[in-house]
Description:
The complex is a heterodimer. Chain A is α/β, with parallel strands linked by helices. Chain A contains 13 helices and 15 strands. Chain A has helices at 15-25, 41-49, 65-77, 88-103, 130-134, 152-169, 179-183, 199-205, 229-249, 269-284, 302-309, 325-333, 352-362; strands at 10-14, 30-33, 58-61, 82-86, 108-114, 145-147, 172-178, 185-189, 221-222, 253-256, 263-266, 289-294, 296-298, 314-319, 339-343. In chain A, helix 12 (325-333) links the parallel strand 14 (314-319) and strand 15. In chain B, the strands form two sheets. Chain B has a seven-stranded mixed β-sheet with strand order 2-1-3-4-8-7-9, sandwiched between helices. By secondary structure, chain B is an alpha/beta fold. Chains A and B meet through helix 3, helix 4 and strand 9 of A and strand 1, strand 2, helix 3 and helix 5 of B. Strand 9 (221-222) of chain A pairs parallel with strand 2 (72-75) of chain B.
Amino acid sequence: MKKENKENEVRLMKGNEAIAxxxxxxxxDGYFGYPITPQSEILETLMEVEPWHTTGMVVLQAESETASxxxxxxxxxxxxxxxxxxxxxxxxxxxxGISYMAGAELPCVVVNxxxxxxxxxxxxxxxxxxxxxxxxxGHGDYKVITLxxxxxxxxxxxxxxxxxxxxxxRTPTFILADGVIGQMMEKVVLPxxxxxxxxxxxxxxxxxxxxxxxxxxxxxxxxxxxxEAWEMEELNLVLQGRxxxxxxxxxxxxxxxxxxxxxxxVAFGISARICQKTSELARAEGLKVGLIRPITLYxxxxxxxxxxxxxxxxxLSVELSAGQMVExxxxxxxxxxxxxxxxxxxxxxxxxxxxxxxxxxxxxxKN
Amino acid sequence: xxxxxxxxxxxxxxxxxxxxxxxxxxxCPGCSHGVVHKIIGEIIEEMGVQEKTIAIAPVGCAVFxxxxxxxxxxxxxxxxxPALATAIKRLLPDxxxxxxxxxxDLAAIGTAETIHACNRGENIAIIFINNGIYGMTGGQMAPTxxxxxxxxxxxxxxxxxxxxxxxxxxxxxxxxxGVCYVTRQAxxxxxxxxxxxRAIQHAFENSMQNKGTSIVEVVSTCNAGWKMTPADANxxxxxxxxxxxxxxxxxxx
Lengths: 367, 253
């Protein structure tokens, strides 16, 4: 067993390692996962730290991603803070369980450190699971709150935040990172230790939890089955109502150099880090280029993008994909200004110069 | 005159257990599910573990098991019950955790979850209802459908070269070190019901004592799916199912 570090100590580590340490520190009860590159360090770090000796957190290597997400379902059904992590092909396997958890109104945290696809694809970084994550993924009408970290510090900070949101809205919550954010090393201050919930605390927060039925209450049943059509519609209306609340309350984004901008780049995760540099390069040339970084991909910062569309001449969505988030940017802008896309695929990460050239070619030169 | 007046306590020979809910069952008359539910209710009452029980329902006819027993339930995706049970029991080791699964759920779509939960020796009990057919979806072939047996997807009988052999998964599970108790029972006679009850109670005690995984296979009838009367289905089961799935303990450690 390795000793955990002191409060507020600055450490150097990978994004994946930060997720593991943050999970232990935020009072996570159970992690269930299956190895897949580029995120295996999460499970490896947990197995090395052995938190079951300190916080009592359960860590288990499952036989598949299918089993992992269903272990998370079982734990979450008991009101426990449960999480899993994987990368794109593994997250595809989990979609059945995520849909069931959405239907059963269960909170959990799923980390996807995206790699290139489709298929077995590549172990190199990608952001091509945007559609899968924010547009559904599994079957049925549901949404998952999606946090997109752009640094190792945010990898650490978003685990506890994701659990808070998951329990507040009784919904699976994603941390959607890419292979770069998972693998790169940066300095990080880990969050302070929070104890795991006692059973009394769970009952207070999650009265629906299946902890065993005392004589004074009816049985708790964790279930997504509604055979009667009106009951199924009723559940859907409850979920949709909750999604509207999420859209109203939980939008997060960051703006850099937007106040006087003529052009805005829209990017999340590692693409946002690249675009931040692009903005600096552009400004050195006298071009007023800003950046909107959606931190929550669902709910999407639609209103803010709409507002900035009143001010700027064009927007460029920059992604490690064939162009996915760009559709949401276009919906927000609603035809007011040109919205173009620049992306690389297959694990290729563009340089800041490359993005600046694309901005010039696709937007600035056409004005 | 009410029920209490008719039944003289001195003459009372049978009383419904208190863990079963007062609701009509959806199971077909003659099906084994109802009897097994009743046994489980009796055991939970007699062991005094109602407040400590977390049960997991499958997909299949028993998907509605949560309506009939007054304990906390989780309903699992098809085949995934042992994965749910794994996490629940590891996080709540003093609880009675059991899954209730049919042959399609446990031995087809959930084979991986079943084998790996057993191989890890999760301290759970698995109640396995084997009636050789998919009842809920209308009588299709199951992994345990006998060779030559007619179902809606084997209308001319299970053709082994085409559809494979019936899977005797309980024999496989008995070979795993994590498994402490494996038995095969049936509830078609009074003696069978009594033996099955003892078996399920033993499995539940193993879970409470964290001794490893216990599996109680109940070879069962699906008279509606088999298109037989309940009595004929019982006879057919004894004659055809028992030679392939023989009664008795396979392992008891």
